[in-house]
Task: inverse folding
Protein backbone atom coordinates (compact mmCIF):
# COMPACT_ATOMS: atom_id res chain seq x y z
CA UNK A 1 0.00 0.00 0.00
CA UNK A 2 1.45 3.38 -0.91
CA UNK A 3 2.12 6.14 1.61
CA UNK A 4 -0.89 8.30 0.74
CA UNK A 5 -3.29 5.36 1.15
CA UNK A 6 -1.71 4.40 4.47
CA UNK A 7 -2.02 7.98 5.74
CA UNK A 8 -5.65 8.40 4.67
CA UNK A 9 -6.58 5.05 6.21
CA UNK A 10 -4.88 5.91 9.51
CA UNK A 11 -6.51 9.33 9.61
CA UNK A 12 -9.90 7.82 8.85
CA UNK A 13 -9.51 5.27 11.64
CA UNK A 14 -8.59 8.07 14.06
CA UNK A 15 -11.44 10.39 13.15
CA UNK A 16 -13.91 7.48 13.18
CA UNK A 17 -13.55 7.37 16.96
CA UNK A 18 -15.66 10.53 17.06
CA UNK A 19 -18.44 8.70 15.26
CA UNK A 20 -19.06 6.28 18.13
CA UNK A 21 -22.37 6.42 20.02
CA UNK A 22 -22.23 8.99 22.83
CA UNK A 23 -20.02 11.44 20.96
CA UNK A 24 -21.78 14.61 19.76
CA UNK A 25 -22.40 14.19 16.00
CA UNK A 26 -21.68 17.81 15.10
CA UNK A 27 -18.25 17.57 16.74
CA UNK A 28 -17.58 14.40 14.75
CA UNK A 29 -18.64 16.14 11.54
CA UNK A 30 -16.48 19.19 12.26
CA UNK A 31 -13.48 16.96 12.94
CA UNK A 32 -13.94 15.00 9.73
CA UNK A 33 -14.37 18.26 7.79
CA UNK A 34 -11.11 19.53 9.36
CA UNK A 35 -9.14 16.50 8.21
CA UNK A 36 -10.75 15.49 4.88
CA UNK A 37 -10.16 16.11 2.07
CA UNK A 38 -6.60 16.93 3.03
CA UNK A 39 -3.90 19.09 1.53
CA UNK A 40 -0.63 17.67 0.27
CA UNK A 41 -0.14 15.62 3.50
CA UNK A 42 3.50 16.61 3.20
CA UNK A 43 4.37 16.09 6.89
CA UNK A 44 2.99 12.55 7.25
CA UNK A 45 4.50 11.53 3.89
CA UNK A 46 7.85 12.79 5.15
CA UNK A 47 7.35 10.85 8.38
CA UNK A 48 6.64 7.58 6.55
CA UNK A 49 9.53 8.15 4.16
CA UNK A 50 11.93 8.49 7.12
CA UNK A 51 10.42 5.47 8.93
CA UNK A 52 10.87 3.45 5.73
CA UNK A 53 14.44 4.63 5.26
CA UNK A 54 15.21 3.57 8.86
CA UNK A 55 13.99 0.03 8.18
CA UNK A 56 10.45 0.33 9.51
CA UNK A 57 9.47 -2.81 11.46
CA UNK A 58 6.13 -1.63 12.95
CA UNK A 59 4.12 -0.24 10.03
CA UNK A 60 1.00 0.32 12.16
CA UNK A 61 2.98 2.43 14.61
CA UNK A 62 4.57 4.41 11.76
CA UNK A 63 1.10 5.03 10.30
CA UNK A 64 -0.11 6.22 13.70
CA UNK A 65 2.81 8.62 14.07
CA UNK A 66 2.21 10.01 10.59
CA UNK A 67 -1.49 10.45 11.36
CA UNK A 68 -0.70 12.06 14.70
CA UNK A 69 1.44 14.70 13.02
CA UNK A 70 -1.17 15.43 10.37
CA UNK A 71 -3.93 15.70 13.01
CA UNK A 72 -1.87 18.35 14.80
CA UNK A 73 -1.34 20.19 11.55
CA UNK A 74 -5.10 20.15 10.86
CA UNK A 75 -5.81 21.32 14.42
CA UNK A 76 -3.46 24.25 14.01
CA UNK A 77 -5.15 25.28 10.75
CA UNK A 78 -8.60 25.20 12.38
CA UNK A 79 -7.51 27.35 15.32
CA UNK A 80 -5.36 29.71 13.20
CA UNK A 81 -8.37 30.38 10.97
CA UNK A 82 -10.55 31.49 13.92
CA UNK A 83 -11.93 35.03 13.90
CA UNK A 84 -9.55 36.08 16.71
CA UNK A 85 -6.54 35.10 14.56
CA UNK A 86 -6.70 35.14 10.75
CA UNK A 87 -10.49 35.20 10.48
CA UNK A 88 -10.09 33.15 7.31
CA UNK A 89 -13.25 32.64 5.30
CA UNK A 90 -11.85 29.81 3.24
CA UNK A 91 -9.37 26.97 3.57
CA UNK A 92 -8.50 24.39 0.91
CA UNK A 93 -11.02 26.05 -1.41
CA UNK A 94 -14.13 25.88 0.79
CA UNK A 95 -15.47 27.55 3.94
CA UNK A 96 -13.15 27.38 6.94
CA UNK A 97 -14.31 25.19 9.83
CA UNK A 98 -15.71 28.05 11.90
CA UNK A 99 -17.58 29.37 8.85
CA UNK A 100 -19.07 25.95 8.18
CA UNK A 101 -19.77 24.81 11.78
CA UNK A 102 -19.60 27.95 13.92
CA UNK A 103 -16.88 29.13 16.24
CA UNK A 104 -17.62 26.88 19.26
CA UNK A 105 -17.30 23.69 17.21
CA UNK A 106 -14.15 25.01 15.53
CA UNK A 107 -12.52 25.56 18.93
CA UNK A 108 -13.61 22.12 20.11
CA UNK A 109 -12.67 20.34 16.88
CA UNK A 110 -9.17 21.80 17.21
CA UNK A 111 -8.95 20.76 20.86
CA UNK A 112 -10.12 17.22 20.05
CA UNK A 113 -7.71 16.85 17.17
CA UNK A 114 -4.80 17.82 19.47
CA UNK A 115 -5.85 15.18 21.98
CA UNK A 116 -6.50 12.63 19.22
CA UNK A 117 -2.88 12.97 18.12
CA UNK A 118 -1.84 11.44 21.45
CA UNK A 119 -4.67 8.91 21.56
CA UNK A 120 -3.63 7.54 18.16
CA UNK A 121 -0.05 7.08 19.34
CA UNK A 122 -0.95 5.12 22.45
CA UNK A 123 -3.51 2.97 20.63
CA UNK A 124 -0.82 1.66 18.32
CA UNK A 125 2.12 1.46 20.71
CA UNK A 126 1.17 -1.81 22.42
CA UNK A 127 3.65 -4.02 20.47
CA UNK A 128 6.57 -1.73 21.43
CA UNK A 129 5.58 0.36 24.48
CA UNK A 130 9.15 1.58 25.03
CA UNK A 131 8.89 3.62 21.82
CA UNK A 132 5.99 5.58 23.28
CA UNK A 133 8.36 7.64 25.46
CA UNK A 134 10.36 9.28 22.64
CA UNK A 135 7.22 9.54 20.50
CA UNK A 136 5.09 11.39 23.08
CA UNK A 137 8.09 13.57 23.94
CA UNK A 138 8.70 14.49 20.30
CA UNK A 139 5.07 15.03 19.35
CA UNK A 140 4.34 16.98 22.55
CA UNK A 141 7.36 19.21 22.08
CA UNK A 142 6.48 19.90 18.46
CA UNK A 143 3.07 21.32 19.29
CA UNK A 144 3.36 22.69 22.83
CA UNK A 145 5.67 24.88 24.88
CA UNK A 146 8.35 26.07 24.81
CA UNK A 147 9.10 25.70 21.07
CA UNK A 148 6.16 23.99 19.37
CA UNK A 149 3.62 25.30 16.86
CA UNK A 150 1.35 26.80 19.53
CA UNK A 151 4.31 28.80 20.85
CA UNK A 152 5.06 29.85 17.27
CA UNK A 153 1.50 31.05 16.77
CA UNK A 154 1.70 32.95 20.08
CA UNK A 155 4.61 35.03 18.74
CA UNK A 156 1.93 36.77 16.65
CA UNK A 157 0.59 38.17 19.96
CA UNK A 158 3.94 39.74 20.92
CA UNK A 159 4.99 43.26 19.98
CA UNK A 160 8.35 42.04 18.69
CA UNK A 161 8.95 38.61 17.17
CA UNK A 162 12.12 37.18 15.68
CA UNK A 163 11.35 35.91 12.17
CA UNK A 164 13.61 32.85 12.51
CA UNK A 165 12.24 31.88 15.94
CA UNK A 166 8.65 32.41 14.81
CA UNK A 167 9.02 30.25 11.72
CA UNK A 168 11.13 27.58 13.42
CA UNK A 169 8.33 27.08 15.96
CA UNK A 170 5.28 27.70 13.82
CA UNK A 171 6.31 25.55 10.85
CA UNK A 172 9.69 23.95 11.50
CA UNK A 173 8.67 22.21 14.72
CA UNK A 174 6.16 19.91 13.06
CA UNK A 175 8.49 19.09 10.17
CA UNK A 176 11.24 18.23 12.66
CA UNK A 177 8.74 16.06 14.53
CA UNK A 178 7.90 14.28 11.27
CA UNK A 179 11.50 13.21 10.71
CA UNK A 180 12.43 12.58 14.37
CA UNK A 181 9.26 10.64 15.18
CA UNK A 182 9.46 8.79 11.87
CA UNK A 183 12.85 7.45 12.95
CA UNK A 184 11.63 6.75 16.51
CA UNK A 185 8.65 4.80 15.13
CA UNK A 186 11.14 2.51 13.41
CA UNK A 187 13.17 2.10 16.61
CA UNK A 188 16.10 4.10 15.21
CA UNK A 189 18.09 6.78 17.03
CA UNK A 190 15.89 9.80 16.51
CA UNK A 191 17.80 13.01 17.27
CA UNK A 192 20.12 12.90 14.20
CA UNK A 193 16.97 13.34 12.09
CA UNK A 194 16.15 16.78 13.50
CA UNK A 195 18.22 18.84 11.05
CA UNK A 196 16.55 17.34 7.96
CA UNK A 197 13.12 18.20 9.33
CA UNK A 198 14.16 21.70 10.35
CA UNK A 199 15.59 22.53 6.94
CA UNK A 200 12.52 21.19 5.15
CA UNK A 201 10.28 23.15 7.52
CA UNK A 202 12.14 26.36 6.76
CA UNK A 203 11.98 25.65 3.05
CA UNK A 204 8.26 25.01 3.26
CA UNK A 205 7.71 28.26 5.19
CA UNK A 206 9.67 30.31 2.67
CA UNK A 207 7.68 28.70 -0.17
CA UNK A 208 4.45 29.55 1.65
CA UNK A 209 5.58 33.14 2.14
CA UNK A 210 6.37 33.43 -1.58
CA UNK A 211 2.95 32.04 -2.49
CA UNK A 212 1.25 34.46 -0.10
CA UNK A 213 2.81 37.28 -2.12
CA UNK A 214 2.50 36.07 -5.74
CA UNK A 215 -0.42 33.65 -6.07
CA UNK A 216 -4.07 34.49 -6.43
CA UNK A 217 -6.68 33.27 -4.00
CA UNK A 218 -8.33 30.90 -6.48
CA UNK A 219 -5.14 28.91 -7.11
CA UNK A 220 -4.31 28.77 -3.44
CA UNK A 221 -7.74 27.89 -1.99
CA UNK A 222 -7.27 30.44 0.77
CA UNK A 223 -6.90 34.22 0.96
CA UNK A 224 -3.59 35.75 -0.20
CA UNK A 225 -1.62 38.76 1.02
CA UNK A 226 -2.65 37.82 4.57
CA UNK A 227 0.80 38.27 6.05
CA UNK A 228 0.98 41.88 4.92
CA UNK A 229 -2.62 42.55 5.93
CA UNK A 230 -2.03 41.03 9.36
CA UNK A 231 1.44 42.53 9.85
CA UNK A 232 3.06 39.11 10.05
CA UNK A 233 6.69 38.36 9.21
CA UNK A 234 7.12 37.13 5.62
CA UNK A 235 10.42 36.08 4.06
CA UNK A 236 9.46 37.31 0.58
CA UNK A 237 8.61 40.73 2.01
CA UNK A 238 11.77 40.80 4.12
CA UNK A 239 14.32 39.57 1.56
CA UNK A 240 12.53 40.38 -1.71
CA UNK A 241 11.20 37.74 -4.09
CA UNK A 242 14.61 36.87 -5.57
CA UNK A 243 16.16 36.67 -2.12
CA UNK A 244 13.40 34.38 -0.91
CA UNK A 245 13.76 32.08 -3.94
CA UNK A 246 17.53 31.84 -3.38
CA UNK A 247 16.90 31.03 0.25
CA UNK A 248 14.45 28.29 -0.72
CA UNK A 249 17.01 26.68 -3.08
CA UNK A 250 19.74 26.80 -0.44
CA UNK A 251 17.50 25.22 2.21
CA UNK A 252 16.47 22.42 -0.16
CA UNK A 253 20.13 21.60 -0.76
CA UNK A 254 20.91 21.63 2.95
CA UNK A 255 17.98 19.30 3.60
CA UNK A 256 19.30 16.68 1.20
CA UNK A 257 22.75 16.92 2.77
CA UNK A 258 21.27 16.51 6.26
CA UNK A 259 19.96 12.97 5.65
CA UNK A 260 21.71 10.73 8.24
CA UNK A 261 23.20 7.35 7.32
CA UNK A 262 20.42 4.77 7.16
CA UNK A 263 19.49 1.64 5.17
CA UNK A 264 17.26 3.56 2.73
CA UNK A 265 19.27 6.79 2.38
CA UNK A 266 19.36 6.67 -1.41
CA UNK A 267 15.61 6.31 -1.91
CA UNK A 268 14.99 8.95 0.75
CA UNK A 269 17.29 11.39 -1.06
CA UNK A 270 15.17 10.99 -4.19
CA UNK A 271 11.98 11.61 -2.22
CA UNK A 272 13.39 14.74 -0.58
CA UNK A 273 14.60 16.11 -3.90
CA UNK A 274 11.19 15.57 -5.46
CA UNK A 275 9.41 17.14 -2.47
CA UNK A 276 11.59 20.24 -2.46
CA UNK A 277 11.06 20.69 -6.19
CA UNK A 278 7.31 20.59 -5.60
CA UNK A 279 7.70 23.39 -3.07
CA UNK A 280 8.71 25.95 -5.66
CA UNK A 281 5.56 27.89 -6.59
CA UNK A 282 4.41 26.99 -10.12
CA UNK A 283 4.49 30.55 -11.37
CA UNK A 284 8.16 30.89 -10.45
CA UNK A 285 9.02 27.47 -11.87
CA UNK A 286 7.41 28.52 -15.18
CA UNK A 287 9.18 31.87 -14.99
CA UNK A 288 12.53 30.18 -14.47
CA UNK A 289 11.96 27.67 -17.29
CA UNK B 1 5.06 16.94 51.94
CA UNK B 2 1.29 17.23 51.89
CA UNK B 3 -0.82 16.72 48.79
CA UNK B 4 -1.54 20.39 48.12
CA UNK B 5 2.15 21.30 48.22
CA UNK B 6 3.03 18.41 45.93
CA UNK B 7 0.36 19.48 43.43
CA UNK B 8 1.37 23.15 43.44
CA UNK B 9 5.04 22.22 43.03
CA UNK B 10 4.30 19.86 40.11
CA UNK B 11 2.08 22.46 38.42
CA UNK B 12 4.73 25.13 38.88
CA UNK B 13 7.40 22.89 37.34
CA UNK B 14 5.11 22.21 34.38
CA UNK B 15 4.18 25.82 33.71
CA UNK B 16 7.80 26.94 34.16
CA UNK B 17 8.60 25.22 30.86
CA UNK B 18 6.82 28.12 29.15
CA UNK B 19 9.24 30.55 30.79
CA UNK B 20 12.26 29.21 28.92
CA UNK B 21 14.03 31.46 26.40
CA UNK B 22 12.40 31.23 22.97
CA UNK B 23 8.86 30.83 24.29
CA UNK B 24 6.63 33.90 23.85
CA UNK B 25 6.42 35.65 27.27
CA UNK B 26 2.74 36.60 26.96
CA UNK B 27 1.81 32.98 26.33
CA UNK B 28 3.80 31.98 29.42
CA UNK B 29 2.04 34.65 31.48
CA UNK B 30 -1.41 33.60 30.23
CA UNK B 31 -0.67 29.96 31.08
CA UNK B 32 0.51 30.83 34.59
CA UNK B 33 -2.55 33.04 35.09
CA UNK B 34 -4.76 30.11 33.96
CA UNK B 35 -3.28 27.74 36.54
CA UNK B 36 -2.43 29.98 39.55
CA UNK B 37 -3.89 30.69 42.01
CA UNK B 38 -5.96 27.55 41.67
CA UNK B 39 -9.38 26.50 42.86
CA UNK B 40 -9.88 23.62 45.25
CA UNK B 41 -7.57 21.32 43.17
CA UNK B 42 -10.14 18.64 43.93
CA UNK B 43 -9.24 16.37 40.97
CA UNK B 44 -5.46 16.21 41.61
CA UNK B 45 -6.03 15.74 45.34
CA UNK B 46 -8.32 12.83 44.52
CA UNK B 47 -5.69 11.42 42.17
CA UNK B 48 -2.96 11.55 44.82
CA UNK B 49 -5.28 10.09 47.46
CA UNK B 50 -5.96 7.09 45.21
CA UNK B 51 -2.26 6.68 44.30
CA UNK B 52 -1.46 6.71 48.01
CA UNK B 53 -4.19 4.21 48.83
CA UNK B 54 -2.79 1.90 46.13
CA UNK B 55 0.67 1.95 47.72
CA UNK B 56 2.30 4.64 45.59
CA UNK B 57 5.89 3.71 44.73
CA UNK B 58 6.70 6.46 42.22
CA UNK B 59 5.73 9.74 43.89
CA UNK B 60 7.11 11.89 41.06
CA UNK B 61 4.98 10.03 38.55
CA UNK B 62 1.90 10.37 40.77
CA UNK B 63 2.57 14.11 41.09
CA UNK B 64 2.86 14.36 37.30
CA UNK B 65 -0.42 12.54 36.78
CA UNK B 66 -2.17 14.80 39.29
CA UNK B 67 -0.72 17.88 37.60
CA UNK B 68 -1.71 16.56 34.18
CA UNK B 69 -5.33 16.24 35.24
CA UNK B 70 -5.40 19.71 36.79
CA UNK B 71 -3.81 21.23 33.66
CA UNK B 72 -6.61 19.74 31.57
CA UNK B 73 -9.19 21.09 33.98
CA UNK B 74 -7.64 24.57 33.76
CA UNK B 75 -7.51 24.33 29.95
CA UNK B 76 -11.19 23.46 29.82
CA UNK B 77 -12.07 26.46 32.01
CA UNK B 78 -10.09 28.82 29.78
CA UNK B 79 -11.78 27.59 26.59
CA UNK B 80 -15.25 27.31 28.16
CA UNK B 81 -15.00 30.96 29.27
CA UNK B 82 -14.30 32.17 25.70
CA UNK B 83 -16.77 34.63 24.13
CA UNK B 84 -18.09 31.95 21.76
CA UNK B 85 -19.09 29.75 24.74
CA UNK B 86 -19.93 31.25 28.15
CA UNK B 87 -18.35 34.66 27.50
CA UNK B 88 -17.49 34.73 31.20
CA UNK B 89 -16.09 38.01 32.47
CA UNK B 90 -14.73 36.54 35.68
CA UNK B 91 -13.30 33.27 36.95
CA UNK B 92 -12.04 32.56 40.47
CA UNK B 93 -12.87 36.14 41.42
CA UNK B 94 -10.87 37.98 38.77
CA UNK B 95 -11.00 38.61 35.03
CA UNK B 96 -11.20 35.48 32.91
CA UNK B 97 -8.12 34.69 30.78
CA UNK B 98 -9.51 36.17 27.57
CA UNK B 99 -10.51 39.34 29.44
CA UNK B 100 -7.04 39.66 30.93
CA UNK B 101 -4.93 38.58 27.91
CA UNK B 102 -7.23 38.77 24.89
CA UNK B 103 -8.93 36.01 22.98
CA UNK B 104 -5.96 34.79 20.88
CA UNK B 105 -3.80 34.12 23.95
CA UNK B 106 -6.73 32.46 25.72
CA UNK B 107 -7.17 30.02 22.82
CA UNK B 108 -3.42 29.32 22.72
CA UNK B 109 -3.03 29.04 26.50
CA UNK B 110 -5.79 26.41 26.49
CA UNK B 111 -4.15 24.57 23.60
CA UNK B 112 -0.75 24.63 25.32
CA UNK B 113 -2.18 23.42 28.61
CA UNK B 114 -3.77 20.44 26.86
CA UNK B 115 -0.45 19.51 25.28
CA UNK B 116 1.42 20.17 28.54
CA UNK B 117 -0.74 17.55 30.25
CA UNK B 118 0.88 14.92 28.02
CA UNK B 119 4.37 16.44 28.16
CA UNK B 120 4.30 16.29 31.98
CA UNK B 121 3.39 12.59 31.89
CA UNK B 122 6.19 11.59 29.57
CA UNK B 123 8.80 13.69 31.41
CA UNK B 124 8.19 11.72 34.58
CA UNK B 125 7.59 8.27 33.15
CA UNK B 126 11.24 7.33 32.56
CA UNK B 127 11.60 5.08 35.67
CA UNK B 128 8.56 3.01 34.66
CA UNK B 129 7.87 3.53 30.94
CA UNK B 130 5.37 0.67 30.81
CA UNK B 131 2.97 2.75 32.93
CA UNK B 132 2.90 5.42 30.24
CA UNK B 133 0.57 3.32 28.07
CA UNK B 134 -2.39 3.17 30.51
CA UNK B 135 -1.72 6.76 31.62
CA UNK B 136 -1.78 8.33 28.15
CA UNK B 137 -4.81 6.19 27.29
CA UNK B 138 -6.70 7.28 30.39
CA UNK B 139 -5.76 10.95 30.23
CA UNK B 140 -6.40 11.12 26.47
CA UNK B 141 -9.78 9.46 26.79
CA UNK B 142 -10.83 11.76 29.61
CA UNK B 143 -10.34 14.90 27.57
CA UNK B 144 -10.85 13.88 23.94
CA UNK B 145 -13.30 11.92 21.83
CA UNK B 146 -15.55 10.04 22.08
CA UNK B 147 -16.39 10.58 25.77
CA UNK B 148 -14.03 13.14 27.25
CA UNK B 149 -14.59 16.69 28.46
CA UNK B 150 -14.27 18.23 25.01
CA UNK B 151 -17.01 15.91 23.78
CA UNK B 152 -19.07 16.90 26.82
CA UNK B 153 -18.66 20.58 26.02
CA UNK B 154 -19.62 19.89 22.39
CA UNK B 155 -23.02 18.56 23.53
CA UNK B 156 -23.82 22.25 24.17
CA UNK B 157 -23.67 22.72 20.39
CA UNK B 158 -26.30 20.02 19.72
CA UNK B 159 -30.03 20.69 19.56
CA UNK B 160 -30.78 17.82 21.92
CA UNK B 161 -28.42 16.64 24.67
CA UNK B 162 -28.94 13.91 27.23
CA UNK B 163 -28.30 15.40 30.71
CA UNK B 164 -26.58 12.27 32.01
CA UNK B 165 -24.34 11.88 28.93
CA UNK B 166 -23.48 15.58 28.94
CA UNK B 167 -22.46 15.60 32.60
CA UNK B 168 -20.70 12.23 32.49
CA UNK B 169 -18.46 13.56 29.74
CA UNK B 170 -18.09 17.19 30.75
CA UNK B 171 -17.37 16.60 34.43
CA UNK B 172 -17.34 12.89 35.21
CA UNK B 173 -14.66 12.01 32.66
CA UNK B 174 -11.92 13.97 34.42
CA UNK B 175 -12.91 12.69 37.87
CA UNK B 176 -12.84 9.13 36.56
CA UNK B 177 -9.41 9.85 35.06
CA UNK B 178 -8.23 11.11 38.46
CA UNK B 179 -9.04 7.82 40.17
CA UNK B 180 -8.07 5.50 37.28
CA UNK B 181 -4.80 7.27 36.52
CA UNK B 182 -4.03 7.62 40.24
CA UNK B 183 -4.15 3.83 40.49
CA UNK B 184 -2.19 3.39 37.25
CA UNK B 185 0.52 5.77 38.51
CA UNK B 186 1.00 3.41 41.45
CA UNK B 187 1.19 0.40 39.16
CA UNK B 188 -2.18 -0.95 40.38
CA UNK B 189 -4.95 -2.40 38.25
CA UNK B 190 -6.71 0.76 37.14
CA UNK B 191 -10.17 -0.04 35.74
CA UNK B 192 -11.82 -0.98 39.11
CA UNK B 193 -11.28 2.66 40.13
CA UNK B 194 -13.58 4.07 37.44
CA UNK B 195 -16.84 3.86 39.40
CA UNK B 196 -15.51 5.89 42.34
CA UNK B 197 -14.40 8.69 40.03
CA UNK B 198 -17.66 8.64 38.08
CA UNK B 199 -19.80 8.92 41.20
CA UNK B 200 -17.67 11.74 42.57
CA UNK B 201 -17.83 13.52 39.24
CA UNK B 202 -21.62 13.29 39.21
CA UNK B 203 -21.78 14.53 42.80
CA UNK B 204 -19.52 17.44 41.97
CA UNK B 205 -21.63 18.36 38.94
CA UNK B 206 -24.86 18.29 40.93
CA UNK B 207 -23.22 20.47 43.63
CA UNK B 208 -22.10 22.88 40.94
CA UNK B 209 -25.60 23.01 39.46
CA UNK B 210 -27.05 23.76 42.91
CA UNK B 211 -24.53 26.56 43.44
CA UNK B 212 -25.35 28.02 40.04
CA UNK B 213 -28.95 28.38 41.21
CA UNK B 214 -28.58 29.51 44.84
CA UNK B 215 -25.26 31.30 45.38
CA UNK B 216 -24.47 34.90 44.55
CA UNK B 217 -21.69 35.86 42.17
CA UNK B 218 -19.44 37.31 44.89
CA UNK B 219 -19.29 34.08 46.88
CA UNK B 220 -18.71 31.99 43.80
CA UNK B 221 -16.09 34.12 42.04
CA UNK B 222 -17.87 33.66 38.72
CA UNK B 223 -21.27 34.61 37.29
CA UNK B 224 -24.31 32.69 38.55
CA UNK B 225 -27.50 31.60 36.81
CA UNK B 226 -25.45 30.93 33.71
CA UNK B 227 -27.03 27.54 32.99
CA UNK B 228 -30.50 29.08 32.78
CA UNK B 229 -29.24 32.07 30.81
CA UNK B 230 -27.41 29.79 28.35
CA UNK B 231 -30.14 27.15 28.19
CA UNK B 232 -27.85 24.46 29.57
CA UNK B 233 -28.98 21.36 31.44
CA UNK B 234 -28.94 21.84 35.23
CA UNK B 235 -29.89 19.17 37.78
CA UNK B 236 -31.31 21.68 40.27
CA UNK B 237 -33.55 23.12 37.58
CA UNK B 238 -34.56 19.65 36.36
CA UNK B 239 -35.22 17.91 39.71
CA UNK B 240 -35.84 20.93 41.96
CA UNK B 241 -33.51 22.01 44.75
CA UNK B 242 -34.61 19.26 47.18
CA UNK B 243 -34.36 16.62 44.49
CA UNK B 244 -30.85 17.77 43.59
CA UNK B 245 -29.74 17.74 47.24
CA UNK B 246 -31.07 14.18 47.66
CA UNK B 247 -29.27 13.15 44.52
CA UNK B 248 -26.03 14.66 45.81
CA UNK B 249 -26.29 12.73 49.11
CA UNK B 250 -27.03 9.46 47.30
CA UNK B 251 -24.05 9.90 44.95
CA UNK B 252 -21.71 10.64 47.88
CA UNK B 253 -22.76 7.39 49.55
CA UNK B 254 -22.31 5.43 46.35
CA UNK B 255 -18.83 6.91 45.93
CA UNK B 256 -17.70 5.69 49.34
CA UNK B 257 -19.09 2.22 48.62
CA UNK B 258 -17.28 2.14 45.27
CA UNK B 259 -13.78 2.23 46.77
CA UNK B 260 -12.03 -0.99 45.65
CA UNK B 261 -9.98 -3.14 48.00
CA UNK B 262 -6.53 -1.60 48.45
CA UNK B 263 -3.86 -1.19 51.14
CA UNK B 264 -5.07 2.29 52.17
CA UNK B 265 -8.85 1.81 51.79
CA UNK B 266 -9.65 3.05 55.30
CA UNK B 267 -7.79 6.35 55.00
CA UNK B 268 -9.18 6.87 51.53
CA UNK B 269 -12.73 6.37 52.81
CA UNK B 270 -12.17 9.19 55.31
CA UNK B 271 -10.83 11.46 52.57
CA UNK B 272 -13.79 10.76 50.29
CA UNK B 273 -16.28 11.39 53.10
CA UNK B 274 -14.65 14.70 53.92
CA UNK B 275 -14.52 15.72 50.24
CA UNK B 276 -18.17 14.92 49.62
CA UNK B 277 -19.20 16.88 52.71
CA UNK B 278 -17.30 19.87 51.35
CA UNK B 279 -19.29 19.60 48.14
CA UNK B 280 -22.57 20.55 49.82
CA UNK B 281 -23.05 24.30 49.23
CA UNK B 282 -22.55 26.23 52.51
CA UNK B 283 -25.97 27.86 52.40
CA UNK B 284 -27.69 24.48 52.27
CA UNK B 285 -25.44 23.01 54.97
CA UNK B 286 -26.40 25.94 57.25
CA UNK B 287 -30.04 25.56 56.31
CA UNK B 288 -29.96 21.86 57.18
CA UNK B 289 -28.11 22.46 60.48
Result:
Amino acid sequence: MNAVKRIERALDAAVSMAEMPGCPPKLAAAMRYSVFPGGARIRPRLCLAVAGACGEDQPKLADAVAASIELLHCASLVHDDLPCFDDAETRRGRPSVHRAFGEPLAVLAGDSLIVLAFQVLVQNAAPSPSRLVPLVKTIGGSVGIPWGIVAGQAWECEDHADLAEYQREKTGALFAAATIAGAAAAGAEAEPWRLLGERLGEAYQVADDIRDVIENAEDLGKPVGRDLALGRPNAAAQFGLDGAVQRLRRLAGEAVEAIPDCPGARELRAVILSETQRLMPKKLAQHAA
About this structure: Chain A touches chain B through 60 residues (CB under 8 Å). The first strand of chain A starts at residue 90 and ends at 91. The mean pLDDT of chain A is 92.
